[in-house]
Amino acid sequence: MADNSDNKAGESSSGSGRGDGAPRRSRGGTRVGGGDGGRGGANRGDAGGGGRGGRGGRGDTMRRGGRGRKDRSEDSREREFQETLISVYRCSATVKGGRRLSFGSLVCVGDGRGRVGIGYGKAKEVPGAFQKAIKAGRRALKRFTIATGGTIPHQIKGRFGASQVVLIPAMPGTGVIAGMAVKAILEAGGLTNVLTKVYGSTNTRNVVKAVMDALEKLRSREMTDTLRGLAKSEPVTA
Questions:
Q1: Which of 157, 111, 155, 168 is nearest to 137 (CA)?
Q2: Is 101 helix (H, G, I), strand (E, B) or coil?
């Protein structure tokens, strides 16, 4: 009987030890094979499926593109035009629940090299109206003639409605002698020496459109000779 009890005690002591190679549970809950005298294959990364996989380095993954950067061509196009706010209008409509406000903006757009356009935009907020006006101005660009010295080739009168605008050539160093609206358009187009005079109505929209009418009527010496059927070598007689 004593021998049997000693054998059972030896079996129980050998079964409770961790060096017998019996399977046990790892921290992740999976069964891994026990090594001699300790954790054995339970070490992280040693077991095929029991260890945690390391994080991949950034050098192995493909680099992504930039965060929505604009092309240089688009930036150069935006810098090409000069945008000037001429006037802002506030409109209110009375409705059943009260007043409904909206805003309108008048903008001139030019490249400083003989192209200029005006645009009008309307929206519920001023920034939205300004952006709409800029787009309308770029679509309505008109080209005109610039003479030597940053002035116009000849005197011209433009009309729109009850407004009349007279543009007069000036010597270098004179500057643009005009009101705010007329000066904004002429400088955006690239003119630096011009005299102006407004007759009739001084409504901003009418004056601006009268200036555009005057610029479209400008003709250079070569254009006039071509319209008259004269050769370049023939002198112009009075």
A1: 111
A2: strand
- pLDDT of 210 > 90? The answer is yes
Cβ-based neighbour number of residue 42 at 10 Å: 20
Alpha helices in 84-202 (DSSP H): 126-139, 180-189
11-20 pLDDT tens trace: 544 444 444 5
Rg (CA), the chain: 42
Sheet holding 194-200, edge to edge: 156-160, 163-169, 194-200, 176-177
Lowest-pLDDT range of 21-30, 37-46, 80-89, 95-104 = 37-46
* DSSP letter (8 states) at residue 122: E
Angle at 76 between CA 113 and CA 132, to 5 degrees: 80
Query: DSSP letters of 57-98?
Result: PTTTSPPP--SSPPPHHHHHHHHHSEEEEEEEEEEEEEETTE
